[in-house]
From TrEMBL:
<dbReference type="Pfam" id="PF05685">
    <property type="entry name" value="Uma2"/>
</dbReference>
<dbReference type="InterPro" id="IPR012296">
    <property type="entry name" value="Nuclease_put_TT1808"/>
</dbReference>
<dbReference type="InterPro" id="IPR011335">
    <property type="entry name" value="Restrct_endonuc-II-like"/>
</dbReference>
<protein>
    <submittedName>
        <fullName>Membrane protein</fullName>
    </submittedName>
</protein>
<dbReference type="InterPro" id="IPR008538">
    <property type="entry name" value="Uma2"/>
</dbReference>
<feature type="domain" description="Putative restriction endonuclease">
    <location>
        <begin position="15"/>
        <end position="176"/>
    </location>
</feature>
């Protein structure tokens, strides 16, 4: 059985888990808690208020993304900002090409080290303009931007009480409190 077939089988056998292939490694993580869901909901609301739809963007949760790090590699980011035309490209196994993505966000859970290191490398290799990590393990938000030659040139951290302005490459003007990205309820 190849890794793609194993991933398909895990997806069927573990219905409450997110299955991904990262750098040729199969991962399965359980669905997250209510705080995680609240963070994503508040982020969707913020992008809507900033005019994402008018700017030709869509915000989606758990949208599959093909990765160039391996022939079977894909990720399922917690939150994505994509071009409204993302569905015009041919999806492979319910995953979309990276060129439609403007930003992806991961909210850390049990596998927080994957979010901080492996996914940062994979998303940079894919050319995703902005990768944001709500790192609940270290209580900070990490912004990666400006991918070049498979690495992000910019890496900034934001502690609680600090506003984070998203780079222009996302496509909307939006400043978020780091607290909202860490616990979902901050204003």
């Amino acid at each position: 059985m190849n890794i793609a077939a194993a991933a398909d089988r895990l997806t069927r056998d573990l219905p409450c888990h997110r299955v991904e292939i990262l750098q040729g490694r199969l991962t399965a993580t359980p669905h997250d808690d209510g705080t995680h869901a609240l963070i994503l909901t508040r982020l969707t609301e913020a992008f809507h208020g900033a005019g994402a739809r008018t700017a030709g963007l869509r915000t989606l949760q758990a949208l599959g993304l093909w990765l160039p790090s391996g022939p079977e590699d894909y990720a399922v980011p917690d939150f994505s900002v994509v071009e409204q035309t993302f569905m015009e490209s041919e999806p492979r196994e319910h995953c979309y090409a990276p060129d439609a993505f403007r930003m992806v966000l991961e909210v850390t859970g049990d596998h927080w080290s994957d979010d901080l290191a492996i996914k940062a490398a994979c998303y940079a290799q894919a050319g995703i303009p902005v990768y944001l990590v709500a790192d609940r393990h270290h209580d900070e938000v990490v912004l990666h931007a400006d991918p070049e030659a498979g690495k992000y040139l910019t890496r900034e951290t934001y502690k609680r009480g600090t506003p984070l302005r998203l780079p222009e490459s996302v496509g909307v003007s939006l400043t978020l409190p780091a607290d909202r990205l860490l616990d979902g309820d901050a204003d």
